[in-house]
Amino acid sequence: MARRKVAVFLMQNGAAPDVSDVMTHQHQILRDALRKYLQYARNGNKRHMFNWEASIGTLRDAGGATQSVTYEPFFVPRAAAVRSLDSNIKNRLRQLGVVGEGRVARVIFCNVNPGVGLAFLVATGCVRDYPVELAQFFFKYAVSPEALGHFLGENYSLSQILRLEFLNLLLDHEPSMTLPEVILSTFTRVAVLPAFQALDRIIHALAHVWWRKERMHTAKNREEGSAMDGLTLGALQLTSIDGLCQLLFNCVMLAWAMQRATDSSCSEDDVHVPEVDVNAWMALNAGMDDGDAIPLATQQRLYHDIESIHHRLQTFFGNCQSTLPTSLDNHTQSYIDRCTLHSSTMLAPNNSPLPFMGDSVRSSLQVRMESFGANHTHSDRTRDTDTNERGTALPSSRSSSGRHVSAMTAVGAKPPAGRRVERGKSARGGGGLRELTFTLVQGGLLFMSTCERSVVPDAFVHLPMVEVVDWKESQRLFTLGGRHGANLQIVYLLEDARWQVVEVPRVCLKAQSDWSFNTWMQHLHTVQTND
User: Per its UniProt entry, which superkingdom is the organism in (predicted)?
Assistant: First the structure.
């Protein structure tokens, strides 16, 4: 976090280390940073405007903790991994995967895996890495409620920030909303999923955002003497956010129970949900909000309002409902199937596998990464993972346990954070050929995927920074390396919306046929010539 630089900046701009704002527990980190920097600067005999002894003594005698500790998320925008794309290419990449009839837009990247989709858009510079712009992207494009619910309900650091920002934008449209309106507005955009912990995170964030927005509005109404609707937050007379969380959760569960009771598509194997009448539901609300009961008339009205809107909520529970898609829907998949370039088919510019991307080429190639020293960079925050110390893996789709397995290995590099390397021969040797699906799209991006039918890449390479350093036509082999002898940079996309740049000296690719070899060489030459 560069605490020393922060301290230098503050002190150079006149910040005194002995003001009351840094005496509280909330600012302990800043106080420690100032103290350490004062000691560092004094030992180095550097010129400063402060009295070192007096300042250190003041900081040493700082007061203790207070009870008004608050949590404020800390967000550092990331720089894009690819910075040389022109605006036209960026606009096309923003629409990457938008297909469908009429005006119904589907964002394939974000609908299949929203974390990987966000990582791709930010890494290519299509969307700036700011919470407001990322949340607005979800609004602009029709991201599926299932995918959005899964990602916002995760415990990823970016998920925690985006669910607050997304809900803040969602509730900005109306100055004051009733509780049923808040539930309907939220859970038509975000699906109610069977992961109760994820649902609890979303409801907890919703309660915090709504509570904060309504406090000022309720106070203003009381000053003006305006009448409040019986189901607005102010009229509910809740005394804490925890009470609001409990009430919201009970209302969502009530809507789900009502929907399950009337859903004819549920099979006999689904968990039976008993019908909940108004008396049973009010009994569940007893003791809520530290024992302060909500008026019975308010609860009855709330029950009947939920009853009138429950069929409009996006709920996904049991065998009769959808879950996060691991592949595309039938309409989108059939569109891709018609446009996909296999080993014996060449696409016309208007039939690219990725809509609006112009001329594209897609086929399966065998790949081998040559060994190299532990030259490894990253553009993102990383964490230690339980991986093989010698391998870097391009993961395939999720296994049944939710773990990732390896499909491409580079000897001598650490694997990207969040990816698991297969404990097998390839991870130890790194010299074998593995078959991957490569897609070259307009704009000089080479997508790499472990699944032939997958539209979402596991990694990509920016081809203007790559050159063909060697090829053997008789063996259908060609080798890619970085420009001017530099390492080749592969951008791995992670499910938590992070990415990691891994450098390798060379990547050796083998085509399946002479036609495929000639096609790839022609397209790679075209990309380098046009750069």
Answer: Eukaryota
